[in-house]
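BUG: 3D viewer hangs when loading the predicted structure for this chain

Environment: internal workstation, default settings.
Expected: structure renders.
Actual: progress bar stalls at 90%.

Input used:
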Amino acid sequence: EIPSKFLLYYINMIHKLCSIRSLVKSTSECYLRDFCEEVLVRLLAEDEEKEEADEIRQLNRVENDMLVKTLNSTMLRVLENADPNDMFGILFDLLIKHRRVNNYSKILGLIIKCVLKLTKALEQLVSVIKPEKILLKSHFYLLEFGLDPSKFGEDIGIKTIKTILNELAKIYREKIWEFYNNSVQLHPQHDNYIHRYYSKFISRLFT
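Structure tokens produced before the viewer hung:
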């Protein structure tokens, strides 16, 4: 077992590296995806250990709290410093991967929190964001998990996608159709959801 003090030192070093924007931005999407998943899995494991009440864990409570805090902050630095288009792609990939295993799990909840944090910043990211990529990733999720309309209200991923679609429509308004036509419309698998949703949402937006 890795000593907790060494682990804390190591995580602090990683945190400092993730605070260097140029370094994070230059990291490939593939490596960044693996790193983000590792951070989220480790964060979940440390957080679960934090909840255990036995005396041994209590002795290490301070170090455990520091680990959780530093891991949280590391993930936030990655969200702030990485290319937002890469991060949306990475988070959707992780969402699909873990959704295949469970309808809901704690790690899905962590991924959703990261997606929503990015979504809240969309308006500030408008100069660099690529709506086509976000729409296409949403389409991929819906192709896999949106086959039963009766369960739309239950699926945590679909609820999140609705929030993203709403924010994109508020920012780009009717121009969203241009992005849709250059992404989802070109995909060989038919869209049964996004076009219909935007048709209703945008009509309400202008009334």
